[in-house]
């Protein structure tokens, strides 16, 4: 652990050397793990417990969701490129990649709206059965997190026109990136647990 | 503290030091701590009043003083108020006031977020209690088990008030916990390594981590509860294939860490008080710290002992029984360390010391009855009886409340610059100690005899009347002791003896500065060489190696410019908007957008608030 030797100066260095806000984001994401963990646990308990259909294996559309998963994972690449551009003071590229990240995120949300719409048409609503209740709550909260991320990215995008995105303020983008990658990783878990495992026909029913 | 800094002592700053507005806009951790403390004591009185009504009803067999429905509201709100609105925020009051002083910091890492935590707590508490006016308070127990909370069994809005109030309070606690972890990790004075932190600061850190990991679990449960009731999503409907036990698992996965969230601050306080009045270092500092951390970890692995009678299966019973017995080990380690701290010390029996000793004695009793129902067969006998009520009050009243009152007597001089009267204080202690045992001691007996919890009355032929009458007398002795405390408090605030900077010959940094501390706490940030830096500075002769000197304190020449955060009214706006949105959900989800708009405007103002003159 580094000891803070510059504390007597008016700009306090932190004890750990990490920025307060960066630590805040990591801790917040740690808390979010338990939030999504509880929602995923509920889904696992309920996926095959519904008394009435549709059951998960009858309705989950793996090809469509694979596509949207690919889109969302690509957005993480764009996010990495955005931060790299900010750090080398290339505001034009940074702006482009931030917009690209938001655009890919919004595309993912479009897929999700389409998926929800299809499910409702095929008779699965949040009220239909316990699968529907746990599925829509889990993926809905994930979608809400993506939405917040898109709003955050677009705020950075518009902010860059008024104030630029100087390298010394790259933390502003990095924090958004931490959040964005986390939301992506949660989706990787959801895709595996809800879609790939969830769509298997239960062995003995 | 790179953000939101203003030059301390500037003209704009001097204007906002007194009056209501200065309290509304304050971001000073000491003032926020006082706000937390005063609010928590107020709710402690309300929760205590509810307890007195409960005891009055139970004093007589087949009493009709309080109707059954109201009785249910009273015991539910008594628990919610004492846990979430009294003990937790009283702990938060000390986190706020004391932790930055103990680590040699000038404020917390996020001062405005800290203010938001307080306002969310206040408005969330008001939302929860406003249910008394709007159609009845929650009446389903503080754990609100499904299916009792189903729309068909609880048709009023009471359960919605419970869920939404708890969500707001949860956001408040989460924000505070994040803030304190970062403050403790990132704002320590030079030289204060983790293993030099005072034990109270350590316990604050552990509690904050417990909150960060436990609260999101409760949030998910509350969201499911609300979606079930409001939108008909069948989360806990057995007829739709759901498992109502899911709620119990989720609730206790939060609820058991919550128990340690309530007790660890008191353990931290006691670990400060005992060394000070024994004039000895804490025995086995590192062991006490690691025991606290171990309790924090293991606290997540024992939740199902609240559910031994629901039919978990023998393997789960054995596992959770073992983990529950195991968690008594670090707790026992702490007890032995505290006793060893007393051993051979020059003990001063001040009021704070009496409360700390009372804590150790009563917590041992409560801890032992806890180990008793770690055994599933024993628990099956005790489940839902007054024996459990006795146990939980010995740990929460005998433990948390005793420890927190000890903290009030110990740190009141630092907070106000005046001493609480020792005479009144000792009267307070003895009345509370005796009243506590008279109230909760007999509950062991009626509990063993089979008296169920949460019943509003009992048949005379059960033979429980005498013990219940004794308990009620005890409750009024406790009430008297609280009245003595209030008299002492108000007298001492106005005309108490001046305390001086260091009335107890303290050992940690908070005693090295003036009482009350200046807004910036430390004129010069001290340099720390041990885990009792102030004691070592006062007593260099006790050290074998080179005497450590901490340059610091409030008296020394101040640094040229100390930057303190500017006051802000956005935290109260965001807090009000959030709680209003939660409250309006009950009326109509669309109306909630009014609160949401206020909250969002508040966040907008917050983000773009001028950071004040920056100095480099």
What's the gist of this structure?
Chain A is an all-alpha fold and 205 residues long. In chain A, 73% of the residues lie in helices and 0% in strands. Chain B has one domain: Cytochrome c oxidase-like, subunit I domain (Cytochrome C Oxidase, Chain A, Up-down Bundle), CATH 1.20.210.
Shape of chain B: globular
User: What do we call the CATH homologous superfamily of chain B?
Assistant: Cytochrome c oxidase-like, subunit I domain
Can you tell me the number of structural domains of chain B?
1
Mean pLDDT of chain A: 90
Count, helices of chain A = 6
Indicate the proportion of strand residues of chain B.
Answer: under 5%
Largest protein interface?
A-B, 41 and 53 residues
In terms of quaternary structure, the protein is heterodimer
Radius of gyration of chain A: 20 Å
Shape of chain A: elongated
Largest sheet of chain B: 2 strands, antiparallel
Number of strands of chain B: 2
Question: What is the end-to-end distance of chain B?
Answer: 12 Å
Q: Count every helix of chain B, treating DSSP H or I runs of 4 or more residues as helices.
A: 18
Protein architecture, described:
With 205 residues, chain A is mostly helical. Chain A has one domain: Up-down Bundle (Four Helix Bundle (Hemerythrin (Met), subunit A)), CATH 1.20.120.80. Chain A has six helices and no strands. In chain A, 39% of the residues are buried. The N terminus of chain A is likely disordered. With 616 residues, chain B is mainly alpha-helical. Chain B is built from 18 helices and two strands. A two-stranded antiparallel sheet of chain B has the order 1-2. In chain B, helix 7 runs antiparallel to helix 8 and helix 9 runs antiparallel to helix 10. The two termini of chain B are 12 Å apart. The N terminus of chain B is likely disordered. Chains A and B meet through helix 1 and helix 5 of A and helix 6, helix 7 and helix 8 of B.
